[in-house]
Structure formats: structure tokens, C-alpha cells
Specification:
Elements: H1 3-28, H2 34-61, H3 66-92, H4 99-125, H5 129-155, H6 162-188, H7 194-219
Length: about 220
């Protein structure tokens, strides 16, 4: 009876490790070798998809545990991000916006609202629950802002320069890699304070996101 959960945990760890290898390779090959960049990116995408699926399975086994509740929210945010990153490349090449593009962003918006409500719930409890209140609040607020911004892009898709979608692809994939790195520090860097375990990778990778965002905007000055 314990075999399936153990397999799920093993798959989660294995896929997570693979994202930590494929992610940096995709970043390294970004402009040096487009073919290898695509291969590493596909490996990262499917490994991250498996990470999210197994994390959701963990929540289904432990729905009343706050850690798994938070893991559910993060998994949905990350999966929505990598899905949008793939769609961004297709939109960049002229594909039409589909109803499921709106559906994914609407689901992300609902997830952000749920995480914000969890932040209030655990904040009112006080004590050790405040840590999760902060985590739910920060990531839930980020999800709300991200979803609202993406919905605006979808409504203006026909008027947007292709570089906007390339920027969307790069930033959301880097965001997913940040999540993968955060999972590693939370599970392996117990010597760090909790806030550095959870927010340390973001502080390290955010400058890279800003750098690539600025470089992409400079590539096509006329981009919206």
C-alpha cells in the first residue's frame, strides 16, 4: 500500500534534480546554441510538469497539512507559468489566442485569491503559522499581479510585438527555475533561516530575470 506514495516521492525527487540540471543548461545555451537550448528546455518543461503533478499528489494524500496546502498553490503557479512560457513562443510566431489561454490565467487568478485567503487564515492564528501566512501572502499576491498582467496581454495580443512574448517566455521559465531552486534550498539548506530558504533563490535569480528582461527590450526598442 505504501508503494505508490514512495514511487511518487522518488519521481518527485528525480524530476526535481533533473530540473536543476536542465534549467542552467537551457540558460547557458540560450544564445550560444539554440538547438541545445530547445532540448534542455523541453527536458526542463517535462521534468517540472512531473514535479508539479507529484506535489499535487502529495497534497491529495495530506490535504489538512499546511505545508502541502502551500505546495499545492506553488505547484499550480509553476505549472501555469511553464504552460504560458510554451504558449508564448507560439504566440510570438503568430498563433491565435485560444480560450484555454484565458482559462489558465483565470485559474491562476483564482489560485492567487485562494492563497491570499490562506494568508489571512494563518495570519489570524499567530505563532508558527505566521511563517505560512507570509509565504501564502507573498506568492499569492505575486500570482494575482501576474495573472492580471497576462490577461491584459492576451486581450492586446494582436497589437503586441513578438518580442513581448519572447520576454514572457524567458521570464516565466526563469521563474519556474527559481521555484525549483527554492524547493532544493527548503529541503537541503536547513542551516539557513526559513526566510532565506524560501526567498534566497528569488533574491539571487531575480537580477538575472531583470537583466534578460532589459536585454530583450533593448533588442526591439519598438516593443510594447
Amino acid at each position: 500500500m505504501d508503494l505508490l506514495p514512495q514511487l511518487s516521492i522518488s519521481a518527485h525527487i528525480g524530476a526535481g534534480t533533473l530540473t536543476l540540471i536542465a534549467g542552467p543548461l537551457a540558460i547557458w545555451f540560450n544564445r550560444r546554441d539554440p538547438r541545445r537550448h530547445r532540448v534542455a528546455g523541453r527536458i526542463f518543461y517535462w521534468a517540472m510538469t512531473l514535479v508539479c503533478a507529484t506535489a499535487i499528489a502529495g497534497f491529495l494524500r495530506h490535504p489538512g497539512v499546511v505545508f502541502y496546502q502551500f505546495l499545492l498553490g506553488i505547484s499550480l503557479l509553476v505549472w501555469a507559468g511553464i504552460f504560458r512560457a510554451v504558449r508564448a513562443l507560439r504566440l510570438m510566431r503568430g498563433a491565435a489566442v485560444r480560450p484555454y489561454d484565458y482559462a489558465v490565467s483565470a485559474a491562476l487568478l483564482l489560485c492567487g485569491l485562494w492563497m491570499a485567503s490562506q494568508a489571512v487564515r494563518y495570519g489570524l492564528r499567530g505563532g508558527d503559522a505566521v511563517m505560512f501566512a507570509i509565504l501564502f501572502g507573498v506568492f499569492g499576491g505575486g500570482a494575482l499581479a501576474d495573472a492580471a498582467g497576462h490577461l491584459r496581454k492576451l486581450r492586446q495580443a494582436a497589437a503586441l510585438h513578438p518580442s513581448v512574448w519572447l520576454h514572457e517566455h524567458a521570464i516565466t521559465m526563469l521563474g519556474a527555475f527559481t521555484a525549483s531552486t527554492t524547493a532544493f534550498t527548503v529541503n537541503a539548506a536547513h542551516f539557513l533561516p526559513w526566510y532565506l530558504q524560501w526567498f534566497g533563490p528569488l533574491m539571487l535569480i531575480l537580477p538575472l530575470q531583470l537583466y534578460w528582461g532589459r536585454k530583450l527590450r533593448q533588442t526591439v526598442p519598438a516593443a510594447a
